[in-house]
Amino acid sequence: MTVLGFHASHEQLPPSRLLAAVQHAEAAGFDAAMCSDHLAPWSVRQAHSGFALSWLAAALATTSLRFGVVTAPGQRYHPVVHAQALATLAEMFPGRFWAALGSGEAMNEHVTGDPWPEKAVRERRLVECVDVIRRLHAGEEVTHEGEVTVHRARVWSLPEEPPPLLAAATTPESAAAHAAWADGLITVAGEAESLRRIVEAYRDAGGRGPVAGQLHLSWASDEQEALRIAREEWSNGVIRPPEAWDIAFPEEFDRRSAGASEEDIRAAVHVSSDLSRHTTHIAGLLATGIDALYLHHVGEEQAPWIDAFGERVLPALRVGA
To answer: Average pLDDT in the 207-213 region?
Structure first.
């Protein structure tokens, strides 16, 4: 049965409230959880961005869920620091933690003061970082010169099994390219056909492990309220890659997304006050062959949708499976 998970958005809630939300999600029947890893929010209106790697320890310790994080090695995180952090979480919570690695976004990485590289350079850097992290997780002493530099590094506290390293991809081309190194894949799940192409590209290229999607949605008991939530909380979603990767500041996301049309908002977020419409849309995404789908309600108030989906949507999807 496909895993139905909860996405914890650090950009939208303070860490304490986000922790309470994921505990609530477990009680409501969600199977697993994942979170973002940002230094800055997408929008000034969101106004939060807790440190994911410390928050994950609290979340793993206070739930029984399996957790993942989408994160980027190479600039804000040196790969040795990343390897140590991931190993510590995997050692404390065996079999319950994975990390999806991507090439990063300027909004989180510019703070080092280093130039923001072109996409091709970021991709090379990612592959090098994956290799460094895997070797460190295997107990090796690592020295490396390339897009990143490592000098005689070793991670001393290691889990019995290293955490799976998934790839984060948004296009069929990047999904296929990452298949060479990834233990699985995670992507944005908007429409079923585009998701299917990404899943097929990864599998056709020899990609192994689970494929997961993340769905941005907005629900409220009133349709206009659901639309208002999507517009106020997630209008940044109308700015797509590659443009979104190169914007450095939340204020710029707000400027570029100001005045987005209802059509654009609904293309970025699945908006509906009708739980049956959400159920049907999610069922279509599950039919693409993904192994997990993480649901992200883009509103600040998490409890009402957690309760509504836990009572109505998740059971319907499981019966349908």
So the answer is: 97
Considering the candidates 11, 78, 82, 105, report the single residue annotated as catalytic: 105
Dump pLDDT digits (tens) for 21-77.
999 999 999 999 999 999 999 999 998 999 999 999 999 999 999 999 999 999 999
State how far the Cα of 169 lies from the Cα of 180, in Å rounded to an integer.
Answer: 13
Annotated active-site residue 105? The verdict is yes
Cα–Cα distance, 235 to 264 (Å, whole number): 9
Quick one: which H or E segment has residue 46?
none
pTM of the model: 0.96
Match 């990612």 to its residue by tokens: 126
Residue with tokens 């980027």: 72
CA–CA separation, 23 and 20 (whole Å)? 5
- Give the per-residue pLDDT at 190: 86
- Of all residues in the chain, what percent carry a pLDDT higher than 70? 99
Mean pLDDT over each residue of the chain, to the nearest integer: 96
Q: Where are the alpha helices (DSSP H) in the chain?
A: 15-28, 52-62, 79-92, 106-109, 119-137, 172-178, 192-204, 223-234, 250-257, 262-268, 275-286, 303-308, 314-320
For the cut 80, the answer to whether the pLDDT of residue 103 exceeds it is yes
Establish whether 161 is a catalytic residue.
no
Count, in order, helices (H) and strands (E) of the chain: 13, 11
pLDDT at 107: 95
Rounded Cα distance between 142 and 147, Å, is 15
Residue with tokens 């790839």: 167
Name the catalytic one among 7, 10, 38, 78: 38
Nearest to 76 by CA among 148, 164, 173, 138: 148
Alpha carbon 77 to chain centroid, angstroms: 17
